[in-house]
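Question:
When you can, review this sequence-structure pair and walk me through the tokens.
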Amino acid sequence: MTTMLTMTTTTAPLTHLDLLEGEAIHILREAVAQCARPALLFSGGKDSAVLLHLAVKAFAPSPLPFPLLHIDTGHNYDSVIAFRNQRARETGAQLLVGHVEDAIRDGRVVLQHPLESRNRHQSVALMDAIRSHRFDALFGGARRDEEKARAKERVFSFRNEQGSWDPRGQRPELWSLYHARPLPGEHVRVFPISNWTELDVWRYIAREGLELPSLYFAHEREVIRRGALLAPVTDLTPPAAGERPERMSVRFRTVGDITCTAPVASTASTVEEIVIETLATAVSERGATRLDDQTSEASMELRKKEGYF
């Protein structure tokens, strides 16, 4: 008589973060399989840092099959640019940088005044890079919870020859099936963490032990109160007549062009403390931090139709 031995193995159920990670990795691989010349938009901010980490996981142990691309307004914090360069070196990825300053010098971007926010003008330099390198897909770290116009966007967002987004011209994404092949002249913006929330991002950063620029953590700096927002006091954002700077403990929920990115009052100096703080906040990330998103003329939907990320 022979006895059959059966072995059973148990695995822990997948967590919420596991499912989000798996979805993002699937999206990254699907786009690379269908597109000829993708690139990953990498600014050094927390969302793009998470996106880069996911991309490294998706294609390990091979090197990244695409370069990193940053559209530099020329008004970024030095520490964020240093972190951008550091992560490019650590991953061995090629880093390409497009400069808004080039479009200003060529006269294709005309500023109303020298200290105007260059944030919306990134679209010109972005399209320059797309045409120059013939990119047909760009990975971005946008999330649906950032702003109501973001929630309208597909995971694979098609753009025309001018980079414009037409919400009525997007392709269906039924059952997580993605058609990534652009028509001649088109390209596609791909958002692998579209279904993540700000809280998901911070919990993932905590789980994976990701490094970030120090601006994301509480520090003291001079700020000015402008309505419900705090504006940092810098050479690019000096106090206006009658404004009185205050020294406060703040952190940045998002980092970008200095002229339009506001810090928030905070004492959260660790990732764990930021997770707790994020659980309690009722104001969206962009609503609390973007000095240039406060009027309808500067709405995200209008910008996306003009070619913005």
Remarks:
- The chain has two domains: 16-199+299-305, 212-293.
- The radius of gyration is 21 Å.
- Residues 16-34 form the longest helix (19 residues).
- The CA atoms of residues 111 and 238 lie 18 Å apart.
